[in-house]
Amino acid sequence: MLKKWGWFGIILILLMQLNFYFKIQPFALISFPIIWIGYILFIDSLVYKIKGKSLIANNLGKLIGMFIISIIVWWIFEFFNLALKNWYYIGTEPFGVYYNLFATLSFSIVIPAFFETFQLIKSLFKFKEDNKKINIKKSTIYFLILLGLICLLLPLIYPRYFFPLIWFCLFLILDPINYLRNQPNLITYIIRKRFKIFLILGISMLIMGFFWEFWNYWALAKWIYVIPFFDFYKVFEMPILGYLGYISFSFEVYAIYYFIRGLFRK
Question: Which of these, 210, 236, 259, 218, lies nearest to 22 by C-alpha position?
Answer without folding.
Answer: 218
